[in-house]
Design goal:
This protein has helices at residues 3-7, 46-53, 58-66, 83-92, 112-119, 137-147, 156-164, 174-193, 207-210, 221-241, 254-263, 284-294, 364-367, 379-390, 394-438, and strands at residues 10-11, 39-42, 81-82, 93-94, 99-101, 107-109, 246-249, 296-298, 301-303, 320-322, 355-357, 458-463, 466-471. The chain has 15 helices and 13 strands. It has a 3-stranded antiparallel beta sheet with strand order 4-5-6. A two-stranded antiparallel ribbon has the order 1-3. It is globular. It folds into 3 domains: 3-367, no CATH class; 379-438, no CATH class; 441-472, no CATH class.
Length: 472
């Protein structure tokens, strides 16, 4: 890396495989700032993800799209990332409110749906680390052993990458295809969506969301990414306050770059928001030009917002506004991915009652609902809706209990009907298979002289319409 790149704080996120603490002063991809400023580092690597995905054939790309991660197939190549800008934005983020507070007058809120619009990964209604993702230790051990992670967590990203690079085709077994999809999610999370401080390993706390590949798209991976980003924001802000010599950025901090540049006035560089996922519009050259246009000094301080914020009706993002401070629950992960013992919270709870969305958004005909592909309403959504609409009125609250009971009965009836229908399909499949086995089209292999597929012979009949087949 040349001196100019270092001074600009650029990094491709791919570093040598030595221990981070040992190679800190020697590794590439580090932004050297002026004296008194910390060195900024990151393991996030869009380049590594793009290079790996580019090797997929058509069938493997279909497997990626099937689990809802088709957005990564459209990632543009980014050999370098401006870590200096990422650090600047992260210092402006209010982690309690999920808001970028540029100054007193300019504040831009963001949500999990906005992350979905940028990267196109699933934004379903199941919590990646919640009750929907409970899994037994034996199941985790089985998945690890099948993929090849039965050893220590060290190097688990390399193991996942190795499995992703295998040749998977329609002739592969079901378990091979499932493991390919599971390994793909781990690989993408480790190098892009929820990057951590280690180069070839990460703490995997989402095994339950991977247990059934058919359900991967129903989980809210965008919310998980936002939670990790909020952990990274608090750590970065703490490091700057303590004047640390090195500040390591983890989480998908490139989201902040794209999101901020997409929401501020940049004149001729303003992009229309008709293409989703929107990251595909941000090729490296365009992103670099927009950063140059945004960068400047304001009141003697560095800034990346030269003018105002774009109107809400000209962007595709939700633009939530904060009503209250919100709250932080749980324990936030430290930079190493392990639980911190210093009282730093582990998980930022984003409460929907704290936010409301403006009615002025981009045309729904063009954009649609960010969660429409993955979100399905359930009994919990119905109960929350009743709680909001009937709260404070004793008569309506009593009525809401009746509605909840009726909704539970309908949900149970649909579940039973779905189960019976699936059972009938299994019996029907057995009958079809039995019929084909008795009357195979390849009768010659069974020693028969005539084909009995149609329970008779076929003859040709020349007519005015040409050659056709009729049953004898």
């Amino acid at each position: 890396m040349d001196q100019e790149d270092e001074n600009q704080g650029l990094s491709d996120g791919v570093e040598c495989e030595q221990e981070f603490e040992v190679s800190l002063s020697e590794s590439e991809g580090r932004g050297h700032s002026p004296e008194g400023q910390p060195v900024i580092t990151s393991r996030l690597s869009v380049k590594h993800v793009v290079e790996t995905v580019a090797k997929f054939d058509e069938y493997e790309r279909w497997l990626v799209s099937e689990i809802g991660f088709g957005g990564i197939l459209k990632l543009p190549m980014h050999a370098k990332l401006d870590l200096k800008m990422s650090a600047w934005v992260m210092r402006k983020v209010n982690a309690r409110r999920c808001v970028i507070e540029i100054d007193e007058d300019k504040k831009i809120g963001f949500t999990a749906e906005d992350f979905h619009k940028v990267f196109g990964i699933p934004c379903g209604n199941r919590d990646v680390c919640g009750r929907d993702a409970q899994i037994a230790d034996g199941a985790i051990h089985f998945i690890k052993r099948t993929i090849g992670m039965e050893g220590s967590v060290a190097g688990n990203l390399k193991v996942a990458e190795s499995f992703v690079n295998r040749d998977i085709s329609e002739d592969s077994s079901n378990i091979e295809r499932d493991c390919f999809q599971i390994a793909l999610v781990i690989f993408v999370m480790g190098y892009l969506v929820a990057s951590c401080t280690k180069h070839v390993s990460m703490t995997i706390d989402f095994w339950g969301a991977l247990a059934n590949p058919e359900l991967i798209s129903q989980f809210n991976w965008c919310e998980y990414a936002i939670q990790k980003l909020m952990s990274a924001v608090l750590k970065v802000q703490s490091d700057f306050e303590s004047k640390a010599g090195t500040v390591h950025l983890f989480g998908c901090h490139v989201f902040f770059q794209i999101f901020l540049l997409d929401n501020i006035e940049l004149g001729m560089f303003n992009m229309p928001h008709f293409v989703l996922p929107h990251v595909q519009r941000f090729e490296q050259k365009i992103l670099g030009q927009m950063i140059i246009m945004a960068y400047g000094m304001k009141h003697g301080k560095m800034s990346y917002v030269p003018a105002g914020v774009r109107p809400a009706d000209l962007v595709c993002y939700s633009r939530p506004e904060l009503r209250s401070e919100g709250c932080i629950g749980g324990d936030m992960l430290s930079a190493s991915g392990k639980q911190s013992s210093s009282g730093v919270p582990n998980r930022v709870e984003q409460r929907t009652p704290d936010l409301y969305v403006r009615g002025s958004m981009a045309p729904p005909v063009l954009l649609g609902d960010a969660r429409s592909a993955y979100h399905s309403f359930g009994p919990r959504d119905f109960a929350n809706h009743l709680r909001q609409t009937c709260q404070g009125d004793p008569v309506l609250e009593e009525l809401s209990l009746m509605l909840k009971q009726q909704n539970a009965k309908c949900t149970m009836s649909m579940s039973l009907m779905r189960s019976r229908m699936q059972s009938d399909m299994l019996c029907f499949a057995d009958r079809i298979v039995s019929l084909v086995q008795e009357r195979c089209r390849c009768c010659q292999k069974r020693g028969r002289s005539k084909c009995i597929t149609l329970d008779g012979s076929l003859e040709s009949d020349e007519g005015s319409s040409g050659l056709r087949f009729v049953r004898k």
